[in-house]
Specification:
- By secondary structure, the protein is mainly beta.
- It has two domains: about 1-35 and about 45-80; about 85-470, Beta Barrel (Porin), CATH 2.40.160.10.
- About 15% of the residues lie in helices and about 45% in strands.
- The chain is built from three helices and 18 strands.
- The chain has helices at about 1-25, 25-35, 50-80; strands at about 80-95, 105, 125, 160-175, 180-190, 200-210, 220-225, 260-265, 270-280, 300-310, 320-330, 340-355, 355-370, 380-395, 400-415, 420-435, 440-450, 460-470.
- The protein has a 16-stranded antiparallel beta barrel with strand order 1-4-5-6-7-8-9-10-11-12-13-14-15-16-17-18.
- Strand 15 and strand 16 (about 420-435) form a beta hairpin.
- Helix 1 packs antiparallel against helix 3.
Length: about 475
C-alpha cells in the first residue's frame, strides 16, 4: 500500500510538471535554445523537432494517466463493499416515585374522581404510560398493573433501581452497485425470562434498498422497511445518534419504521428537501397502541415532508444550517380491517444545526377514530397540539450538555372500556462525556409534571447510558 501511495504521489507530480511543460511549448523551445550546444554526433539521424518532442510528452502524459487510473481502480476494488456499524448500550436507572409507573387510576366514588365526565368508561387512567422512559428505545421503568390488560412489560422493575443492557445493535451496509445500497438494522435486547424460558428478543427494525436515481446522490428511492419521513426526531432514534438518552413524549408518533416505498430528494443546491412515501402503516412505534406492520386493510398510508434548509453563514461556522419543515400523513388506521376510519398526523418542525450547537423543535396534532367495539382492539386517539424544544450544546470537545421541554395532550380510548387522559409536561436535562471516538457516557434526569386537572404525582426518572459504538 505504501508503494502504491508513493507511485501515485510521484505520478501526480510528474503529470503536473509534464502538463505545465506541454502547455507551454514556447517555454520548452526557449529552454532548448538557451541550452549549450553540443558537437554533432556521428549519427546521420535527424534531430527531434519541437513537434516530435511535444508528441513524446503527450504520449508520456497518456501513459502516466492510464497507470494512475489503473492504480485508483485497484485501490477501489480492494475496499470491501460490506461495512458494519453498531453499538452496545449499557445503563443504570433510578425510578423516583410511583414504582416507576407513569400513570395512576382515576377511581373511587363519583364525587372524588378527577374526571367524572368519563364515568362511562370501565377504567380511567391519568398520566402518560410511556412517560417514565429509561433508554433510547423508549422503554419505561414499569408499565404498571392495569386491570384486564395483558402487556409485555420488557423492564418491569417494580420501582427498583438497577443496571440494564439496553440494546445491542448491528447495522450492516452492502454496496450492491454504484447506485444501489442495502441496509439493515437488528437489535438484540436482553430481558427477563420466566418459567425456564429466555426473555431475550431480536428486533429487525430496518431492512431497505436505497437506489440513487441521480449521479449526484441527492435523489434516492427506498424500498423495504424504511425510516419514516415525518418530522426530524427519527434521525436520532439510535443510541449512537442521539445526543441525549431518552426520546421525546411525541416520538411514539414519528419515529417508527414503515413498510413500503419512499422517495427523497434535495433540490436547489440543498435548499429544498422533499420526501414522500406510500406504506402499510403509520410512523408510530411498534410498542404503542397504533402500530401494525402488516396491513389488515387495502388502503395505503400516505406520508410526506417538505422543508427549506438555509445556510445561515457564520453564526458559529460557515456550514451552519437553519431548516423549517412541515410533515403530514394520512391513511386507513393501523389494526383496522376496514378503511372507513382514517388516521392522520400533521405538524411543523424546526432545527438549527451547527458544529457545536443544535436547536430542535417539533409540533404535532392528530386523530384516529378507533372502533366502538373494544374486542376489535382498534384504539382511538385525540392528540391535541403537542411537541418539544431541545437544545444540545457540545461545550468542549469532550463535554456537552442538553435540555428539553415538552408536552403531550392526548386522549387514548379503547371502545367504552378504557381511556387514558394525558396532560403531561416533561423537563429533561442531561450531560454527555465523550471519552474517545467510540465511547460516550450520558446522564439524564426527567421530571414529569401533570397539568390540566390532573393532580401531580411523583413519577420522575434518573437514568444513564454508556454507549460503545463502532
Amino acid at each position: 500500500m505504501n508503494v502504491d501511495k508513493q507511485f501515485r504521489k510521484h505520478a501526480i507530480a510528474t503529470l503536473t510538471a509534464l502538463g505545465a511543460l506541454a502547455a507551454s511549448p514556447a517555454l520548452a523551445q526557449e529552454e532548448r535554445s538557451s541550452a549549450p550546444s553540443l558537437p554533432e554526433a556521428a549519427s546521420e539521424e535527424p534531430a527531434a523537432t519541437g513537434s516530435d518532442r511535444m508528441q513524446t510528452l503527450e504520449e508520456r502524459l497518456g501513459e502516466l494517466n492510464e497507470r494512475l487510473r489503473e492504480s485508483e481502480e485497484a485501490r477501489l476494488k480492494s475496499v470491501s463493499p460490506l461495512s458494519w456499524n453498531g453499538y452496545v448500550d449499557f445503563g443504570y436507572f433510578v425510578p423516583l416515585g410511583n414504582n416507576g409507573v407513569g400513570w395512576i387510576r382515576d377511581d373511587g366514588p363519583m364525587d372524588q374522581r378527577q374526571f367524572p365526565q368519563y364515568f362511562n368508561y370501565s377504567w380511567t387512567f391519568l398520566g402518560d404510560i410511556l412517560g417514565t422512559a429509561i433508554n433510547t428505545r423508549g422503554e419505561v421503568a414499569d408499565l404498571g398493573d392495569a386491570p384486564d390488560a395483558v402487556r409485555f412489560d420488557s423492564v418491569d422493575s417494580d420501582g427498583a433501581a438497577g443496571f440494564i443492557l439496553n440494546e445491542i445493535n448491528l447495522r450492516p451496509r452492502f454496496q450492491l452497485s454504484d447506485r444501489a445500497i442495502l441496509r439493515a438494522s437488528v437489535n438484540f435486547v436482553p430481558r427477563n425470562g420466566s418459567d425456564f424460558a429466555l426473555g431475550d428478543f431480536v428486533e429487525a427494525d430496518l431492512g431497505e434498498l436505497e437506489y440513487l436515481l441521480t449521479a449526484d446522490g441527492k435523489t434516492s428511492l427506498f424500498v423495504g422497511k424504511t425510516l419514516p419521513v415525518f418530522g426530524i426526531e427519527y434521525k436520532d432514534r439510535k443510541s449512537d445518534q442521539r445526543f441525549g438518552i431518552t426520546p421525546s413524549l411525541i416520538a411514539r408518533y414519528t419515529t417508527g419504521p414503515q413498510l413500503g416505498i419512499k422517495l427523497r430528494s434535495k433540490l436547489a443546491n440543498d435548499w429544498l428537501v422533499l420526501a414522500a412515501s406510500v406504506t402499510n402503516n403509520s410512523s408510530t412505534i411498534e410498542m404503542f397502541h397504533f402500530y401494525r406492520e402488516i396491513d389488515r386493510n387495502n388502503d395505503p398510508f400516505l406520508n410526506g415532508r417538505v422543508a427549506v434548509s438555509l445556510p445561515v453563514g457564520r453564526l458559529f461556522r460557515n456550514d451552519d444550517r437553519l431548516e423549517f419543515g412541515f410533515s403530514g400523513e394520512w391513511g386507513a388506521q393501523d389494526r383496522a380491517t376496514d378503511t372507513a376510519g382514517k388516521m392522520w398526523f400533521l405538524g411543523p418542525d424546526l432545527q438549527y444545526l451547527g458544529v457545536n450547537l443544535a436547536i430542535k423543535g417539533q409540533l404535532i396534532e392528530g386523530r384516529s377514530p378507533g372502533n366502538p367495539d373494544p374486542m376489535a382492539g382498534v384504539w382511538g386517539l385525540h392528540l391535541n397540539l403537542s411537541g418539544y424544544l431541545e437544545v444540545d450544546w457540545q461545550v468542549l470537545a469532550h463535554f456537552g450538555i442538553y435540555a428539553r421541554i415538552e408536552n403531550r395532550d392526548a386522549l387514548v380510548t379503547l371502545g367504552d372500556q378504557r381511556i387514558y387522559v394525558t396532560k403531561e409536561r416533561r423537563f429533561t436535562a442531561g450531560l454527555r462525556v465523550v471519552v474517545n471516538p467510540h465511547v460516550v457516557v450520558k446522564g439524564e434526569y426527567l421530571h414529569n409534571d401533570e397539568y390540566g386537572g390532573i393532580n401531580e404525582f411523583d413519577n420522575d426518572i434518573a437514568t444513564s447510558s454508556l454507549v460503545l459504538f463502532f
